[in-house]
Inverse folding.
């Protein structure tokens, strides 16, 4: 945790919902619809909420932000995680997972696969080797890439295709655990630069797995955000639509419309903190200039959904893993050799036939298509005789949430042309700072630790 003495800083948190287009004309706003602040935070997810709490509660600032867990399951004992929970009086304890019987099936047919996953001791040994590797280079990537070397000094191993690295280091047994936890590499795991796997599964998460130090709230993950909102709600604009943005070295102006408000509001701030993922769609109303566009234009979209479904035809305490046929008999590196991944695992109270749904894809998937992929996946199990069940199985999707985002561009020469340096040169540029999972490892604990480093730098520009 950093500590700074600063004069009172005011900020506004926008729970970003979308955008439209309009033209800023300050004369067209009534005085009560013009807000002046020092910092405006765009986005109210893990990084936006954390940043707002830290700025107001720890840095003398003022701002004008029974359950069933199917998204985040646990947290690492890393960075500010424990203190953030304690701040809101949320008790936590060791993470415990339900023991499930895994059934590996062909993603195309639903038939059982003759796939033998690595033994537990093999997995642990391989993860220990991976731990040694990521520990060696940790200061280059955690928290964030502030210390990443220039192109001519990048460790060659970072540019090595992950498949080659795994085979050379003989750590194939670590691959199933890495991809199951991180979701990295759908459709392209073997050819990804090793750095991108490091970014998805670095030191903090590897230590958490090897040492068994993950933690979880004793009540609900959502309680953290409920209490944060109660703290910040006078200064939060829910469901805000950004209509136009002007940014330069002197500050930012953002026109928004929030919730059921009939009038638009002009926000004038000295600094902006952007926390959503930087897709071209999200950034349209944020007034990119050519420098920013060149950095963000080639990022790769990813589609990911998590949810809960009632599936009465799958035995309780089961986990269905849909895998490509190439994994037989024990080709662990092929586990992501397919354009999408799907798993269904028993969750929730016993007897309710509830399953946690995890779906990832390297192509566009809508909510409706995601539901259909789950339903058809279940019917494949029945048609193939994998389940002792006949007829149509009614899949009832209780909840489904998109975790879509964008990833760094994957061209082989991207890093060698200074991508990381160009990306981080945007920090503070045009009075704008950036945080969130696109800038570091995507786990909440890592995002919070990285956000601290951003806030420290942002506040120095306001002294």
């Amino acid at each position: 945790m950093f500590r700074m003495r600063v004069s009172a800083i005011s900020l506004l948190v926008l729970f970003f919902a979308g955008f439209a287009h309009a033209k800023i004309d300050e004369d067209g706003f009534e005085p009560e619809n013009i807000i002046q602040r020092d910092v405006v935070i765009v986005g109210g997810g893990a990084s936006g909420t954390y940043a707002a709490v830290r700025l107001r509660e720890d840095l003398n600032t003022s701002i004008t932000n029974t359950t069933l867990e199917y998204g985040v399951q646990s947290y690492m004992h890393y960075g500010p995680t424990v203190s953030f929970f304690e701040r809101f009086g949320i008790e936590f304890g060791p993470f415990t997972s339900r023991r499930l019987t895994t059934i590996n099936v062909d993603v195309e047919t639903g038939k059982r696969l003759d796939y033998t996953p690595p033994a537990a001791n093999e997995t642990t040994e391989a993860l220990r080797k991976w731990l040694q590797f990521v520990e060696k280079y940790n200061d280059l990537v955690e928290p964030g890439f502030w210390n990443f070397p220039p192109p001519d000094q990048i460790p060659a191993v970072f540019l090595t295709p992950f498949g080659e690295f795994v085979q050379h280091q003989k750590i194939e047994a670590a691959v199933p655990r890495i991809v199951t936890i991180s979701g990295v590499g759908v459709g392209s795991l073997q050819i990804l630069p090793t750095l991108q796997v490091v970014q998805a599964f670095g030191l903090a998460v590897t230590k958490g797995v090897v040492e068994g130090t993950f933690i979880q709230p004793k009540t609900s993950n959502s309680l953290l955000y409920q209490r944060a909102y109660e703290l910040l709600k006078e200064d939060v604009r829910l469901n805000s639509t950004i209509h136009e943005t002007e940014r330069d070295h002197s500050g930012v102006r953002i026109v928004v419309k929030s919730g059921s408000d009939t009038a638009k509001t002009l926000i004038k701030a000295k600094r902006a903190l952007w926390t959503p993922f930087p897709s071209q769609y999200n950034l349209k109303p944020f007034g990119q200039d050519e420098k920013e566009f060149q950095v963000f234009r080639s990022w790769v979209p990813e589609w990911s959904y998590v949810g809960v479904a009632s599936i009465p035809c799958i035995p309780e305490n089961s986990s269905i893993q849909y895998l490509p046929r190439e994994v037989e008999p024990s080709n662990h590196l092929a586990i992501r050799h397919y354009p999408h991944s799907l798993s269904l695992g028993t969750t929730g109270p016993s007897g309710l036939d509830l399953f946690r749904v995890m779906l990832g894809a390297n192509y566009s998937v809508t909510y409706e298509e995601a539901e259909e992929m789950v339903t058809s996946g279940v019917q494949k199990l029945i048609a193939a005789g994998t389940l002792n069940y006949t007829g149509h199985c009614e899949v009832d999707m209780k909840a489904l949430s998109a975790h879509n985002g964008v990833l760094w561009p994957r061209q082989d020469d991207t890093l060698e042309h200074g991508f990381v340096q160009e990306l981080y040169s945007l920090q503070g540029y045009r009075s704008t700072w950036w945080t969130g999972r696109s800038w570091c490892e995507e786990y909440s604990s890592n995002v919070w630790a990285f956000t601290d480093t951003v806030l420290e730098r942002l506040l120095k520009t306001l002294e």
